[in-house]
Every structure is written in C-alpha cells, then in structure tokens.
Amino acid sequence: MTTATAQSPFASNSSPSNMCGVTLMNNQVGAIVAEMMGLKDGVTITYLPSMIRVDAAQRMDFVYSEIDEAAGEDEEWFDAAEFEENMSTHYGRMVHEDGRTIMFANPEDAAKYLGFDLAVTS
C-alpha cells in the first residue's frame, strides 16, 4: 500500500518574488498616496477595509513633490516622516532620499544607494 501526502498550500518557497510594496493606513493621506501611485506603470493598488496595499515589480518611487501636488498641499509638505507615519509595513529594501522614497524588490538593486560593495572578495 502506498500513501501520499498532499502538498501544502503554505509550502516554503525561497525564490525571489521580484516584488516590493508598502501597506498604508486607509486614511486621507494614504488614499492620496495610493491614488497617485496607482497612476504609475507596474504599480498595483489593493484597497482593504483598514489598509491600502501598494505593490510593484522591481522598483517603485514615491516622489514627494508629486504627492504634494496631488494633495493640494504646499511644496515639501510630504516627506519621509509623513511617509513613515502613514505606512505600517513594507517589504523589499527601502531607501529614503531628500525628495523621494524608493522601494527595491532586490537588495542588490539598492546597493549603490546603501553603500554596499557587491564585489566578490576572496
């Protein structure tokens, strides 16, 4: 007699997803950021009751001046602190610059922003 075990839908998979994303609060600021990001190629927005998912393949840039304009606010209203206040979690590598937050799916793509040396040493 032979028995088999069904494959679990929760099986481990260590292959890279090539995706990055953030979870925003479902409030006025989160809605503005999601609406603006939804206009960008390759970005998927998922509205949930208490949060908004913003996901993309490879990389996405949250450009603060674009968010300022979409919100009808003065220049430099939206910044890294405002972004962090409205974001509850993220996946991928996050880099804050003066005028944007960049999300990378793969750490190697963020290496030059983070000062990593990817050269192989022996």
N-to-C SSE series? EHEEEHHEEEH
Quick check: average pLDDT? Answer: 90
Strand order of the largest sheet: 2-3-1-5
Residue share in β-strands: 25-35%
Specify the biggest β-sheet.
4 strands, antiparallel
| CATH H level, superfamily name | Monooxygenase component MmoB/DmpM
CATH topology type = Phenol Hydroxylase P2 Protein
Low-confidence stretches: none
Please characterize this protein's 3D structure.
It is a single chain. The chain is of the alpha+beta class. It has a single domain, classed as Phenol Hydroxylase P2 Protein, CATH 3.90.56. The chain is 27% helix and 31% strand. It has helices at residues 28-37, 64-71, 80-86, 107-114, and strands at residues 19-25, 43-47, 51-57, 59-63, 87-91, 93-96, 100-104. A four-stranded antiparallel beta sheet has the order 2-3-1-5. α1 (28-37) crosses α2 (64-71). The radius of gyration is 18 Å and the shape is flat. The protein starts with 18 loop residues before the first strand and ends in an 8-residue tail after the last helix. The model has no long low-confidence stretch (mean pLDDT 90).
